[in-house]
Amino acid sequence: MKADIEIGTDAHGTPVLVDVEELLATRLLVQGNSGSGKSHLLRRLLEQSAGLVQQVIIDPEGDFVSLADHFDHVVVEGASYSPREIEALAGRIRQHRASVVLALEDLEVEQQIRCAAQFLTALFDAPREHWYPALVVVDEAQMFAPSAAGEMAEDTRRMTLSAMTNLMCRGRKRGLAGIVATQRLAKLAKNVAAEASNFLMGRTFLDIDMQRAADLLGMDRKQAERIRDLQRGHFLGLGPAVSRRPVAVHIGEVKTGGKNAAAALTPLPQADAAAMGELLHADLAEEAAEKVHQPPPPPPPAPPPVEALAESMAARAEPQESLSREVATGDVDSVLAEMAAEDGSTFRPASTLFRDFATRCRQQGVASAHIDMPTFRRLFAFASAGVGLLEGSQRERVEEMAQGVADDVLAPYLAIVVSAARGSGTPDEDHLARVYGTASPGRIRRLLEHLEKTGLISVHEDFGGDRTITVPGIEDVLA
């Protein structure tokens, strides 16, 4: 089968074609500085080949979700699913040959990397009967295959490098053709870049990236200067799927668009300095004097169930036997209580605790995709303060009292409320310090002063140094 798509024209206006079948066997590397037109090139390639081959896009910035508006792509919001669900979806994507966009923009960088790595690994590990051909596009590939460890955890780096290496080195036999795009070749792991046989090089300025690009294109140092002079949307192409000799390509038009801010100038507001100053300072004092404790944000909307996405994928594919994998459920409270009971747990960073929580939920079969970082921080504060020890009505009242309390002081405040509700009197500084995650008595004193100033507690200290803490509203809990 011969399937050529047009990605643009050369300097003479002649169409430049890409052989999709050859591309599946030889992979593609796209490089160019920010603003050189990489995303536009990828979008053109995806749009032109949408009806020919399955497409899977790893999208860290949400730039390609608009493909779903014009083509049969399913958008998978990575932040809405647990690791187990992401792996299950990847298996179904290969089975049903669905074209998908894995949108990761709502995740922190390290969580983006882990999510993409698990997703790619599950694609790679699909059963042999599901090894259908697919283009796997990874934008910002230097994030997922870094040449140096940087600031990410070592286990995360090993996981993502393994996934990207499998995609580029061993994916061909499984039908997976990697297309990786990067801003800087120097930041991309060499063993990942080296597996591509096709190249499209855009504008770049740093000497080290220019030289690597020139080496890949078979150009000498003097010819490499051409790469610096390329205009936006112009690339130098080479490879068995593109051209046997370096060819200059002006990328063609696209139907869909990204959500990047416009680079063109827009008119400034017509206001003089006095009017603008008044606008900037209007109600500034009131805004700055907002209550310290804002109510927690509403819970995030429930993610679309895995089954719904699976049915959508199956509807777009040829009828095949459906794959049923149930997502196990369990008790989140028991996982949180187990973590809170461990020595030193409150001294660990919130991000580390959150990763540990997600790991334990996976191990125990507990569904936790609906719990994001802010929700976890509040739930962990409840667990570490011992709210679970209260009876039903008491617990409900304590939860109501905690609604307007900020996350950073929620745990010690709840510890005071729980102690009062159980008739244990005022908790000592050691207990508050453990719940608050500090070893500094001074911080505890400042904490109590802060809670008193905001009206959450009332502190009375006699001349002998004995301290009594009263909590407004505690009568309703004791009633």
TrEMBL record:
Q: Where are the residues of the annotated region Disordered? A: 288-324
Ranges of biased composition (kind: Pro residues):
294-306
Q: Which top-rank group of organisms is this from?
A: Bacteria
| Entries under SUPFAM superfamilies matching the protein | P-loop containing nucleoside triphosphate hydrolases (SSF52540)
- Please give one Pfam family short name: DUF87
Domain AAA+ ATPase per the UniProt entry, residue ranges = 24-214
| Keyword terms | ATP-binding, Nucleotide-binding
Molecular function per GO = ATP binding
> Which protein is depicted?
ATP-binding protein
What organism does the record attribute this protein to? Answer: Aurantiacibacter zhengii
